[in-house]
């Protein structure tokens, strides 16, 4: 597939600086692009590569508009790249019709144009909306509901009574609706607390590979509209994730924690249970959050502190050995001075 530079500039609403009839046939990184590729520069560290790139054309912001290449100039090159990538992206692997190697339980309700691949299992009373696609190996437990245009990659598990909205994407190995981690110690051992709740995933969420989302002990674990969760994330029972929150890989959220809207959690962030994180808060990678956080904060470190304070703390770490030696020397000097004064007082 090819697109002319003129077509792409019009699609992006950008300023064309180059031949409108130049055809590009794909997207590539700035240092790997060929003359048939379109690339982009969205960060100063890649700007120097713009002079040497072999790309046929480059998407840039106004600050790099002097580059001696065919250009499309836009305000937000990374956003423009994402939009163009959708034009060149290959269709997601799919399926047509309902395989005779799938198991459909009693009283299953199927919408129009559903696609069910081999080795899919649908429990009793499952309800699928229109144009739902279930790839091989998916398990959908009894009375689960899946909304229109949702796509489940191979080997996704949705347990009983969970509800998944419309236009949701769930990647391979994700498990939705497992038991929450609830036990009470007794003299005889750990007594399991039955997990009676469910999981609700709202419209347009995307759940990464091998994500686990536990059902509520009572009530719901809820993933808000437009939430994006990276691979290998653990969401515990009765957690609430606000709309359009993003969570990077290996983060873990303990039970009953409430995350606001448009929150960002970096990789390996850990949050204790029963706290609240305010809207638009950003928490950096490997931070440990042990208390509730107001809206509009930027936190880093373990325990998590405001960004500027954490940077000051980190900047002082390398001075600690010398500071320790100085303090020990001062303590010894003080002890010697005290002993001298005591001897003088005795005489």
Give a brief rundown of this model.
The protein is α/β, with parallel strands linked by helices and 347 residues long. It contains five helices and 39 strands. It is flat, with a radius of gyration of 28 Å.
How would you summarize the topology of this molecule?
Blueprint: E1 3-4, H1 5-12, E2 15-17, E3 23-24, E4 26-27, E5 37-40, H2 44-47, E6 57-60, E7 71-73, H3 77-88, E8 103-104, E9 109-110, E10 115-116, E11 121-122, E12 127-128, E13 133-134, E14 139-140, E15 145-146, E16 151-152, E17 157-158, E18 163-164, E19 169-170, E20 175-178, E21 183-186, E22 189-192, E23 198-201, E24 206-207, E25 212-214, E26 220-223, E27 228-229, E28 234-235, E29 240-241, E30 246-247, E31 252-253, E32 258-259, E33 264-265, E34 270-271, E35 276-277, E36 282-283, E37 288-289, E38 298-300, E39 305-306, H4 307-317, H5 320-346
Parallel strand pairs: 4-5, 5-6, 6-7, 8-11, 9-12, 10-13, 11-14, 12-15, 13-16, 14-17, 15-18, 16-19, 17-20, 18-23, 19-24, 20-25, 23-26, 24-27, 25-28, 26-29, 27-30, 28-31, 29-32, 30-33, 31-34, 32-35, 33-36, 34-37, 36-38
Antiparallel strand pairs: 1-3, 2-7, 21-22, 38-39
């Amino acid at each position: 597939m090819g697109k002319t530079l003129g077509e792409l500039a019009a699609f992006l609403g950008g300023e064309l600086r180059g031949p409108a009839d130049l055809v590009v046939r794909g997207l590539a990184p700035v240092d790997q692009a060929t003359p048939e590729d379109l690339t982009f520069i969205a960060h100063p560290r890649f700007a120097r590569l713009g002079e040497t790139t072999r790309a046929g054309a480059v998407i840039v912001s106004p600050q790099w508009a002097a580059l001696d290449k065919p250009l499309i100039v836009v305000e937000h090159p990374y956003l423009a790249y994402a939009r163009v990538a959708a034009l060149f992206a290959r269709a997601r692997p799919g399926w047509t019709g309902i395989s005779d190697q799938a198991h459909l339980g009693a009283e299953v309700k199927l919408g129009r144009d559903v696609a069910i691949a081999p080795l899919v299992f649908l429990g009793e009373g499952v309800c699928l909306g229109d144009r739902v696609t279930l790839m091989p190996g998916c398990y959908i437990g009894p009375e689960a509901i899946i909304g229109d245009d949702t796509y489940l990659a191979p080997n996704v598990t949705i347990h009983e009574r969970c509800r998944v909205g419309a236009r949701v994407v769930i990647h391979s190995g994700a498990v939705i609706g497992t038991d929450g981690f609830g036990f009470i110690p007794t003299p005889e051992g750990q007594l399991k607390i039955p997990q009676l709740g469910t999981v609700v995933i709202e419209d347009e969420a995307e759940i990464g590979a091998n994500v686990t989302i536990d059902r509520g002990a009572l009530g719901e674990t809820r993933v808000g509209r437009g939430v994006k969760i990276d691979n290998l994330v653990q969401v515990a029972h009765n957690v609430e994730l606000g709309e359009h929150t993003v969570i990077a890989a290996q983060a873990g959220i303990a039970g009953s924690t409430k995350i606001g809207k448009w929150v960002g959690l970096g990789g390996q962030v850990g949050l204790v249970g029963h706290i609240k994180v305010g809207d638009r808060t950003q928490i950096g990678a490997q931070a440990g959050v042990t208390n509730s956080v107001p809206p509009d904060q930027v936190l880093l470190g373990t325990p998590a502190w405001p960004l500027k304070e954490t940077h000051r703390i980190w900047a002082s770490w390398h001075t600690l050995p010398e500071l320790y030696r100085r303090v020990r020397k001062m303590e010894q000097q003080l002890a010697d001075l005290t002993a001298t004064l005591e001897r003088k007082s005795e005489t």
